[in-house]
Automatic annotation (TrEMBL):
Annotated localization: Cell membrane; Membrane
Protein's name according to its UniProt entry: Magnesium transporter MgtE
Protein family according to the UniProt entry: Belongs to the SLC41A transporter family.
UniProt cross-references to SMART domains, sorted A to Z: CBS, MgtE_N
Leader peptide range in chain numbering: none
Purpose: Acts as a magnesium transporter.
Domain (CBS) ranges: 147-209, 211-267
Transmembrane segment boundaries: 293-313, 319-346, 367-388, 394-420
Protein source organism: Oceanobacillus kimchii
């Protein structure tokens, strides 16, 4: 109860603060606005800025320096922030990019037209432009594309005192100083040193005596999803990025990996629904429809296959019309079971829980799971259909069809994403609607195949 009162009180104080910021902005009180606005957290600044109309944002551009503005924009989603650069004076925008951490600047620039990127880089100061150009060359979704070059590196022959002097000079511009990366005379990464170990050491101690030589690093070309997996496994705050000769190129920090995890999760969820990832935030109905139509047309043709398959068993349906009653039930159960297995398999591969050593164990587990769930559901149906229709053979037919369909559907939901992963295709593209449609075909084939075989027991 005390916590709730505290939260309510804090929220009221925060809202009062925001109202002062709004009033100062509306009345053009620059100094009051700056004092109140810069007193709140950069994330809250970003949320306030994102809610303003174009005229109000234009005022804010004139009230804040490029450095202050850069802190706001790196806290706004890429889909939104790119539009704001269209409103700005190009020189002001270029100065904002120069003030941003290089990796954040590159993320935004990758969303802009190449002509505009070239224009900004031309206006920008040479040092910042060269740093950003270096990162722009790396392929998207790799370690190189998400790393930053703003880190502190030291040499193994330096002393603690020399390192502390260097740290005081370079720390203000570094993204993190929790780890210091140690290079040899050829600028190869040979060790890592924590700031804690540095502080407690004697001034004359050599860095090579303090550093840990067990350095975990990633190749500049490594996929960002694999890098995120390493952060999760090792609980890193920062990870060095090297070339094929172990030269240190940059570091990846945990805040960037959190963004990667969110991006990958969103992408996988979109694929599971057979949608484009960009479709989620698209506010244009025609663009949204254009992105969804290809998937829906493919599923339409797959659905026609299901309809034509039912048509091939028209004689069976004419003789025992009640069979039609159970088509949606069997197809729906198979689709649900396949989608559940698909979700388990895709998540397991995405998190690295299911590597090559355990994947067949997973297949066996899912097959047994399908058999157990199919047997239970089938047995329940046998009893219900016998009490409802008074036909034990019909009950056994539907019950066995459910059991067989659930086993096959569960295996399909597990094996198809594994097969795609083997072909280096994102397993999430084995999306729910596709698995559901495929399992519709399989379950109906099982159901009517058995019904045709044992027709003499049903009529």
């Amino acid at each position: 109860m005390k916590q709730e009162r505290y939260d309510t009180q804090y929220e009221e104080q925060f809202q009062e603060h925001i109202e002062k910021v709004k009033t100062a902005l509306q009345q053009g009180q620059i100094e009051v606005f700056r004092e109140e606005f810069l007193d709140i957290h950069p994330y809250d600044q970003a949320m306030f800025f994102n809610q303003q109309d174009e005229e109000a944002r234009g005022q804010i551009y004139t009230y804040l320096s490029p450095e202050e503005m850069s802190e706001i924009l790196i806290n706004i989603d890429l889909e939104d922030v790119t539009a704001f650069f269209e409103e700005m004076d190009p020189r002001y925008a270029a100065m904002i990019f120069a003030e941003m951490p290089a990796d954040d600047a590159v993320d935004i620039l990758n969303e802009l037209d190449k002509e505009k990127v070239a224009s900004y880089l031309t206006i920008m100061d040479q040092e910042s432009a060269n740093e950003i150009k270096q990162l722009l060359h790396y392929e998207e979704k790799t370690a190189g594309s998400i790393m930053t070059t703003e880190y502190v590196s030291i040499y193994n022959d330096m002393t603690v005192a020399e390192t502390m002097r260097l740290l005081k000079t370079e720390a203000p511009d570094a993204e993190t100083i929790y780890y210091l990366f140690v290079l040899d005379g050829n600028k190869r990464l040979v060790g890592v040193l924590s700031i804690r170990d540095l502080i407690i050491a004697d001034d004359e101690t050599k860095i090579e005596e303090l550093m840990s030589t067990k350095v975990v690093a990633v190749s500049v070309a490594k996929d960002q999803e694999d890098v995120a997996q390493m952060f999760r496994d090792y609980d890193f705050l920062a990870l060095p990025v090297v070339d094929f000769q172990d030269h240190l190129l940059g570091i990846i920090t945990v805040d960037d990996i959190l963004d990667v995890m969110e991006e990958e999760a969103s992408e996988d969820y979109s694929m599971l629904a057979a949608m484009s990832n960009t479709d989620i935030k698209d506010d244009n109905a025609f663009r949204s429809a254009r992105k969804r139509l290809p998937w829906l047309v493919i599923l339409l043709f797959l659905g026609m296959l299901t309809a034509s398959l039912i048509g091939r068993f028209e004689d069976t349906l004419n003789q025992v019309a009640v069979l039609a009653v159970f088509i949606p039930l069997i197809a729906g159960m198979a689709g649900n079971s396949g989608t559940q297995a698909l979700a388990v398999a895709v998540r397991g591969m995405a998190t690295g829980d299911y590597d090559s050593s355990v994947k067949w164990k997973l297949v066996g587990r899912e097959a047994i799971t399908g058999l157990i769930t199919g047997t239970v559901c089938g047995s329940i149906l046998v009893l219900i259909i016998y009490l409802w229709q008074g036909n034990l053979y019909l009950g056994f037919l539907v019950g066995f069809s459910i059991m067989a369909s659930l086993v096959v559907a569960t295996l399909a939901g597990t094996l198809i994403p594994m097969f795609m992963n083997r072909l280096n295709i994102d397993p999430a593209v084995a999306s729910g609607p596709f698995i559901t449609t495929i399992n519709d075909l399989i379950s109906i084939l099982i159901y009517f195949g058995m019904a045709t075989t044992f027709m003499s027991y049903l009529v």
